[in-house]
Amino acid sequence: MNLKEIWERIKKFYNEKFKPLTLNQKILWISLIFGAIVAISVLTYINSIPHYVVLVSNLSESNAGDIANELNKLGIPYQAGKNGTIYIPESQNVYDVRMKLATAGLLGPTAGVQGYSLLTNNSLSSLGMTSFDRQVQYQIALAGELEGSIDMLQEIEYSKVFLSLPKYTYYVPGQEEKPTASVLVVLKPNMQLSQDQILGIANLVAGAVGDMALSDVKIVDQYSNVLSNEIDLSQNAMVATS
Questions:
Q1: Among 189, 181, 195, which Cα is nearest to 156's?
Q2: Residues 70 and 145 in one domain
Q3: Cα–Cα distance, 203 to 216 (Å, whole number)
Q4: What is the pLDDT of residues 8-47, one digit of tens each?
Q5: Are residue 141 and residue 207 in the same domain, yes or no?
Q6: What is the domain extent for residue 173?
Q7: How far is residue 9's CA from residue 74's CA, in Å, rounded to a whole number?
Q8: Parallel, antiparallel, or unpaired for β 231-232 and 79-81?
Q9: Cα 125 to chain center, whole Å?
């Protein structure tokens, strides 16, 4: 439909539908059209504003600065908030970005970034729940966030994270019992993880749990190969075993 045809349709509508209306009816029509235009404009503007989500929180000032620099290198916009929180646009894949940061050694014990949070207050509900219920809910939610990031590695079909946390770690970090984690990665056919990726997984998991050392994270594949034995986790070092 060209402009001439559009103009002819407008003229026809005006002469046949709009012109015969009374003054009050014309005012009503104009008000409705104007209101619709305003509503569409407002909705368009609101939708154009990027919605930011939590990437990671509870960071130190220096850690947040290092992560911000890496996000700049990756071309990912971000906002810094209170309590060491970094936000990125919802359009970015938060799981993928977390895995990239961990693989780059910017999250976890290797970078001295421990006890950061991947969860928001909206992720957990405490209404009518006991302390034990909250602990279980916290572990399930955290494991789900970790699995979401680990699954972003293209070599992985899917993963399962099993956390063993001291009782009430959600409330009081640092109990006598040591927190541990086991990670099962199901690799795609003919795929294998690099040592940096294995260390990145260990860093991501250990860093999200207070007082968990890299050596407390066991990573195995579907063939029962202990992948975490392929790297040196003893001193939080990014050194591969020979």
A1: 189
A2: no
A3: 11
A4: 888 888 888 878 888 888 888 889 889 999 999 888 877 7
A5: yes
A6: 129-240
A7: 51
A8: unpaired
A9: 19
